[in-house]
Give the backbone structure.
Amino acid sequence: MKNNFVCKKNICKFTVFACLCVQIVLICVFWNTKQLSDYAFYENLAFESYNNDTWYPSYINMYEKYIFAPGLINYFIVQLHFFGSLKFNLVSNFILNIGIIYFVYKIAQKFFSKNVAYLSVTLYCLLYSTWFSVVPNGTEVPFLFLSLFAIYIILYRLEYIFFAGILFALANWIRPLAVIYIFFVVIYMIYQKISFRKYFYLLLPFVVTIVIIAYNTNNRIGNPVFQSTTSGINLILTANEKAYGGVATSLINDSSTICYIKDRDKYTYIQQDSIWKERAISWIKENPFKYVTLYFIKIPGLFSEDAWPDRAVFFGAGYIDKVAHGKVALHEALGYLLKLLAKSFVFYIIMLLSIYTMIRKRKDIITNKGLILIIAFCGIAITNLFSVSPRYHYPFLFVFVIWAAYGLNCMIENKSIKI
């Protein structure tokens, strides 16, 4: 038993070291590489605000499609003030990734054991998305870091729970999915019979931070924005006659769909969001079966691959959208698909192992071990209400990694429960 523990620990150390070395190499390789797709858009938003000596959003953003991840864009603006470029963000992602790896270890240790924690980190560091996550200038890494940091505080340093509330608000400022983590910690606190005063200490700083963010934004643009305003566009992209469940942004300019708004640039982001929501809700009421069908189709789509981070520097952004609408030859699509499958091989093994473990250890789902599954199940449930992309699974992928590690540890120690 002791030899197994030492072996897992040493393998874990080696895997972490190798993963960090790969990330350092990637940082060096892509240090001067111009980012593509959405990541270039995020950079442009930051540079635009920086060059106009303002924060995001401001009056110059009033007629854009939506306000995107204001917390992230303002974080970029801070970097521009200090360094004059966003190259440092690769280093920032590297540092935050070390934190994420540590938090995955501590969460796995809390709900399972040190053995499972070492295996969790080993599996997490073998993922292609973990290697490449240092490269994109996106929401994924800072959002996950802040969320897991807040969870860590509640699990291990409850006396600082007020700080966790602030971290959740900042995470929500980057990506409006913090609710799945907050719901998890509330259930955990109930399960652990933690004093109700702690709920107040958690939620008060969360609300106060959001109010401060909203107040400052309201002073700039007359509207209290405290998170992204992308719900309208993300909903209509999965609630229209040509929807396939993915992020089909090409439909925004397709005048034959309800996604299209004539003279859109004459409407503020608030008006556009309202129009898209109204149209999407009306379409869902008229086509409930198709919407529900797409909802479940999006589950495999959400976990279809794990190579999303390299789209920041490699070709591939929007490719699935083109394939879905017949704009790519079959042989080209198959070639691209094979590359995705190869990059995502470890991811598929982890997902299959985690599902297998949930089946074999299904009795554990209703115990303390199953609490972290709340994050994953709520994440899937909420994400699938809107259009999805494979990268949207990243905020709760670590949960499946931990359960896969649990199953692997049971196999190693020969403690599997027969069905």
Remarks:
- Residues 2-29 form the longest helix (28 residues).
- The chain has 18 helices and no strands.
- Residues 408 and 414 are 10 Å apart (CA to CA).
